[in-house]
Amino acid sequence: MTSTVPTAVQHTDAQPPITMFGPDFPYAYDDFLAHPAGLGQIPATEHGTEVAVIGGGLSGIVAAYELMKMGLKPVVYEADQIGGRLRTVGFDGCDPTLTAEMGAMRFPPSSTALQHYIDLVGLETREFPNPLSPATPSTVVDLKGASHYAETIDDLPQVYRDVAAAWSACLEEGADFSDMNQAMRERDVPRIREIWSQLVEKLDNQTFYGFLCESDAFRSFRHREIFGQVGFGTGGWDTDFPNSILEILRVVYTEADDHHRGIVGGSQQLPLRLWEREPRKLVHWAPGTSLAALHPERTPRPAVTRLSRTAGNRITVTDADGDIRTYRAAIFTAQSWMLLSKVACDDALFPIDHWTAIERTHYMESSKLFVPVDRPFWLDKDETTGRDVMSMTLTDRMTRGTYLLDDGPDRPAVICLSYTWCDDSLKWLPLSANERLEVMLKSLGEIYPGVDIRKHIIGNPATVSWENEPYFMGAFKANLPGHYRYQRRLFTHFMQDTLPADRRGIFLAGDDISWTAGWAEGAVQTALNAVWGVMHHLGGGTDPANPGPGDLYDSLAPVELPED
Q1: Residue 24: how many CA atoms within 13 Å on its side-chain side?
Q2: Does pTM top 0.90 for this prediction?
């Protein structure tokens, strides 16, 4: 239950670590970032050229940072605050070190391009307390009114181990898990492409639930139900059941659901520190230049309200202040549905097939509620049982997932009372933060009748429903069956040489453009694709010793399914 990796796969210290290397586009972004030659250069005549970067989330800030290093002048537009779905908040009147991660809060080691930037700005990480992880003292699984206390999976009833074994067998039987996981670990591109091309054609129309049902290992409805409600790694999987199985395979192949770490002090520090960072190696700009320094009052420009094409294949941007600026290149990193609603757009911005892909993008809802508490009281021992009085909790009740977050036994702590997705998230939508709190305390009180959680709360709750956030309208993209072709169009948009001249110059990026949406690694990878696209568009190129994603595209291009 602590890992999505089938138990049949035996990993040793001698094996290379897994990364998000494919399977759709097996390019080594971590090697690209680490190479001393850098990401590329542009002609000196282009130094200082302004490039619009729309969206100040992680993808936008990474793209802007790398463009600045090349000698371009990124102009960042942000409707709300730097960070996007890396959003860390405090609690009014409480210790400022007490924070809640409203968006991304756990990051797998396979996010190696993301880790490059975490290391670059000097942030620390620590193990995240997922169900039954080494960082979690205990876990309670509560289903259908029956609770089971566990410190390891062996403490759970046999049926849970049976479900874990069924998931392993299902992945081996239907998705060549061991072969693909090993090929990705060894960065064996031919083997990755051989396996994946067959699976994409075979499984593009299949749901996650249908994939389970076709496996002999999951013939039991009871096993499928338990797997949906409890799952393995981070918790239940049933909110993903309607989605394409290809989305799930991308997660398990890359072990994206395993060994998570949190960023000490909050994930929003990453884009904020990049915004202020003064790179040592800069082209064109004076030493000490930062993204913040390139913007008046060290603040991004406001929300974009209109995007249009103007003479000379330029991109013209109108912002909320009424300011109009025209650029030779732009990167759009905000949630793609903004192009359909919040931003007035010319149809000529993108080819019609790309508009269709944007319109068909499917987003997952997600809600959280956090409360600050006086101390990690859950570590107290029950005098009768000797167990922790409260545990990380997975349940079929309204709360679904409850996480306990502390920084030592004598310090204030935080509880994520509920983390839910999709239909479970929509159930919370009409309720205020305090109304949500009351329902959650009632549910948890039924699991822990002897624990008075309320008496430990020292501040007001903090909550979010991403589907109700005006600049997001959802937490992250998740393709439905049959959406592979749409995702391919969006991901490959940075390759524009085959597009008509009047459809070039604006580049899509962000985690919903990536193959691995919902993971910050996808935001970083698509930012680097867009950086390569802008560099190429302006006549620049990479060092031959460090080819970029566009240079190797022909040999790595995602599988192309027929349209007819």
Answers
A1: 26
A2: yes
